[in-house]
Amino acid sequence: MSSFGTLFRVTTFGESHCKGVGAIVEGAPPGMCLTEADIQPQLTRRRPGQSKLTTPRDEKDAVSILSGTENGRTLGTPIALFVENLNIRPADYSEMQDVPRPGHADYTYQVKYGIRASSGGGRASARETIGRVGAGAIAEKWLLEAFDLKIVAWVSSVGDVEMPESLDGELLRFSREDVDERGEMRLLTADKPESPHYEDSALRLYSSTGEHCAPLSEAELEAARTDDLVNVRCPHPETACRMASLISSVKAAEDSVGGVVCCRVSNVPAGWGEPCFDKLEAALAHAMLSLPATKGFEIGSGFRGTRMLGSQHNDPFCGGSSSGRLGTTSNHAGGTLGGISNGADLLFRVAIKPVSTIGRPQSTCDFDGNACVLEAKGRHDPCVLPRAVPLVEAMAALVLADAALKQMAREKSIESLTS
Ligand SMILES: Cc1cc2nc3c(=O)[nH]c(=O)nc-3n(C[C@H](O)[C@H](O)[C@H](O)COP(=O)(O)O)c2cc1C
Question: Is 60 exposed, middle or buried (0-12, 13-18, 19+ CB in 10 A)?
């Protein structure tokens, strides 16, 4: 269905090539300050055309709030968000009229509905996620104001290029600004593989394989600098350079590559989540696997935890927190026990596949079963991982806003008997 959540509820609408896309958001507390300026930054992080490594489609994705607010405050009534589809080129999809794209949803939509949007992927297109990101920005604003809750996601691997593994280490304590700043590189013109290919935001230089390079003279640097910035949203610059090099080689080969987005949520109060069927981790898995192109979800130690013993995996409790609640000395659980938040950070990972529309010829067959070769024309992303970061953050915010409202209702019902 196109709706998600119970008390904080979002319904998205729109196909990739109709007049526009958006969402109806219900459950945002009345009286909250809210304007388009609170929502636009996350939509801008999601949009295509942010760097040389993403699709050259340049969609502005400017959001309008159509209802649910007055004089910059929420009324408690449904908030309608709308973004116009301005950058439509149906001709880019002409070769796919009769041929379902391998790995995409053309075939299954046709089988299910007997009809499908003629271009752009319809509801299966990532443009549907605009409504989620807009709604997520509203949820996130409330969660920050009410609980100081912070959600930060980042790209931890692209193909076989991975950030150094230190699950509970300092590396994972980034802010969103760190992710955007440290993951952004200026491209330099370079004639040898070992010469500087990238300059990070702190003006350090790196080779194509992420090795640190000796500084260049100001004149050499000026000659090498281009206007092109790439942002892979990996906050470890050495790894970010290797990811950028991998993505550009995949792009040159007209192919695509996948990876993993990690997410940390801090300051989640203990007690959120609804056992048994709506355990907090089950709600997060549902949310993440409802995003296009996602293929896996892990919380805490995830699949790697299966290689540990119970004595290693258990997170011992410790006292002494200012809230009077128990803490844990490690966090293999990933922030939940029995489907209920335990007060530790939520830590989870989402696997994203290499997207299906590629320029490289692929042997397949048309809707009638006749063998053919498909070569996608047009503007397609070789790697959507950097753009998936705000999607993961948005879905986490929607799950947590819903969980928060449910727990607040329960706490009121407990108070009603004790007071
Ligand atoms: C941010 C983002 C951008 C995407 N862009 C494309 C794209 O340009 N081409 C493509 O084939 N798929 C793209 N996808 C993936 C498809 O929407 C998705 O694979 C397709 O709907 C099939 O659904 P499934 O992979 O969930 O089975 C994108 C996904 C995300 C998250």
Answer: middle
Cis amide leading into 365 (omega within 30): no
Q: What is the pLDDT of residues 163-220, one digit of tens each?
A: 987 644 555 688 999 999 998 999 999 888 788 999 998 999 999 999 999 999 999 9
Ligand 1 pocket test target in 51, 53, 104, 123 with most atoms within 8 Å of CB: 104
92 contacts: CB under 8 Å, gap ≥ 6: 119, 377, 378, 379
Q: Pairing state of beta strands 259-266 and 346-352?
A: antiparallel
Q: Counting Cβ atoms within 10 Å, is residue 4 exposed (0-12), middle (13-18) or buried (19+)?
A: buried
Residue 345 has pLDDT above 60, yes or no: yes
Output the furthest CA–CA distance in the chain (Å, rounded): 75
Could you tell me if 194 and 157 are in contact, meaning their C-beta atoms sit under 8 angstroms apart?
no
Q: Which phi and psi (to 5°) does residue 211 adopt?
A: -80, 145
- Per the DSSP assignment, residues forming a β-bridge with 328 are 317
Residue matched to tokens 């995949």: 250
Atom number of ligand 1 nearest to Cα 121: 21
User: Is the Cβ atom of 380 under 6 angstroms away from ligand 1?
Assistant: yes
Q: Is 381 a catalytic residue?
A: yes
Distance, in Å, from the CA atom of 175 to the CA atom of 169, rounded to the nearest integer, reads 14
Alpha-carbon distance 22 to 33, whole Å? 20
CB 387 near ligand 1, within 6 Å: yes
